[in-house]
Design a protein that fits this description.
This protein is an alpha+beta fold. The protein has helices spanning about 1-25, 60-75, 105-110, 185-200, 240-250, 270-325, 330-345, 345-360, 365-400, 405-435; strands spanning about 35-40, 45-50, 85-90, 95-100, 120-125, 135-140, 140-145, 145-150, 155, 165-170, 175-180, 205-210, 210-215, 235, 260-270, 325-330. The longest helix has about 55 residues, at about 270-325. The chain is elongated, with a radius of gyration of 32 Å.
């Protein structure tokens, strides 16, 4: 058994070193270079709650319509370049969107809440379709929808006819090109409209979102000139990389089927986020120190060994958070701190059982083995009920209540409790076994609690 204990001890040391180089430094670990992911309540970011207008949606279709909105918003968030966004349904008609590191709340609202597809327009002059009234006005003049005939009906050209495979490329001279293609219906409309505009002295084709024109980096409306007849495939030149990239993303976005309006928004500044992180780290360190002090003072040598196991537990726990990754919110850190206290529950059950075995006259080695063996059923029962509670909380937070605070707490608590079982049964047990056969094992006073015999 001594040989197996030494091997296990070596494995524990390797795991400890690996966890340490993954965790430190917190913002970019030496191994895998992964930072700790913080939620917007611990870092700068924006939270927006959108309310959906379901008045025109049949009762039986509302759930699928809301799910489609969530999918579309997820696509649109990619335009903002957000890492680890949180997009959740909240109740029957609301969607909560959390965007870490985004503080331009108006831009976020504009991109996410855009409910209309992009529309194309042509300048309203005296020589084209005077029966169509202008809908937009900008620096270039008055614009009206670009219409064409499709299956005998007049249809406006919109991004609904785009194939969602738009991308940015360069020509032989290195100039940026936005490459796009139409579906079969869009090809028919595009051919008629671009033929008309091309024959009208290379007239412009405006691009509009809702009631306003899309604008470029210079603040001017994006309205490329039609230099040829476009059927199924075309290109737009003269855009900057930022303009081309954003326009490409917008053209590839799915339409939000249910109109959304911002109901609540909140921005956390970088300074406030940094302060929250510092306070959370202090609370975690204080909790760890208090637990260690209690274990060392009350349980003496086993308490010291359990404290070492607790430090290993904390490092491995943080390494798991980085590797998954787990986005830490204030509630998530609360779950981690709670798991620190619960991590010693198993050790306490084992040590109390060891104390009873020592009182019964067993040797230290026999008391250690009996303590772990006979306390296991109680440890498993306690932790299993916690797993059930975590599962229920996660389900409620991800579906019914739609709260990232609840899911964050449930996830970190679940990981912590599961890991605490492993560290108590494996790490603490290995440490105690290392003392069997040494002179310290003969001093039973080191293995009894305060006031114990």
């Amino acid at each position: 058994m001594r040989r197996n204990t030494e091997i296990t001890f070596g494995i524990i040391l390797v795991v400890l070193v690996l966890a340490a180089v993954i965790v430190f430094p917190l913002d970019n670990g030496y191994l895998f270079k992964k930072p700790v992911q913080y939620g917007i309540d611990l870092k700068s970011g924006t939270e927006i709650v959108f309310k959906a207008d379901l008045s025109q949606v049949p009762e039986g279709d509302r759930t699928s319509a809301m799910n489609a909105d969530v999918t579309s918003i997820t696509q649109r968030v990619d335009v903002l370049g957000v890492t680890n966004p949180v997009i959740q349904r909240q109740g029957a008609d609301r969607i909560r969107v959390q965007l870490p590191n985004i503080t331009d709340i108006e831009k976020a609202k504009a991109v996410i809440g855009q409910t209309t597809i992009l529309e194309f327009g042509e300048l309203a002059t005296d020589d084209n379709d005077t029966d169509i009234r202008p809908e937009w006005k900008n620096a270039y003049g008055n614009w009206k929808p670009a219409y064409g005939m499709l299956n005998g009906e007049k249809k406006a050209l919109t991004s609904a006819y785009f194939n969602q495979n738009t991308y940015v490329n360069t020509d032989n001279l290195g100039s940026l090109l936005l490459i796009f293609s139409w579906n079969s219906d869009g090809s028919v409309l595009s051919k008629e409209i671009t033929t008309r505009l091309y024959n009208n002295k290379n007239a412009q084709l405006g691009i509009f979102s809702g009631s306003s024109a899309l604008k470029g980096d210079d603040g001017q409306p994006i309205a490329p000139r039609v230099n040829g007849i476009i059927t199924d495939r075309g290109e737009i030149s003269g855009l900057s990389r930022a303009e081309a990239t954003q326009l490409s993303a917008l053209l590839n976005l799915g339409r939000i089927p249910v109109p959304l309006s911002p109901e609540y928004s909140h921005v956390i500044s970088p300074a406030s986020g940094a302060n929250f992180i510092n306070l959370a780290l202090k609370a975690t360190v204080i909790a760890l120190i208090l637990v260690i002090l209690f274990m060392c003072i009350y349980y003496k040598l086993p308490g010291v060994l359990a404290s070492l196991a607790l430090i290993i537990y904390a490092l491995v726990n943080l390494a798991i958070y980085k590797l998954l990754p787990v986005t830490l919110t204030l509630a998530g850190i609360g779950g981690f701190v709670a798991s620190l206290g619960m991590a010693v529950d198993a050790n306490i059950l084992i040590f109390e059982r060891m104390k009873e075995e020592l009182r019964a006259g067993r040797t230290v080695g026999a008391a250690i083995e009996a303590g772990f063996k006979r306390a296991w059923s109680a440890i498993w029962d306690c932790n299993f009920t916690t797993f059930i509670a975590c599962g229920i909380m996660y389900w409620l937070g991800s579906s019914v209540a739609a709260s990232s605070l609840v899911t964050g707490f449930a996830l970190t608590l679940f990981i912590g409790v599961a890991l605490s079982m492993i560290t108590a049964i494996t790490v603490t047990r290995t440490f105690l076994r290392m003392f069997i056969g040494t002179s310290l094992a003969q001093k039973t006073s080191l293995f009894t609690v305060i006031g114990g015999k």
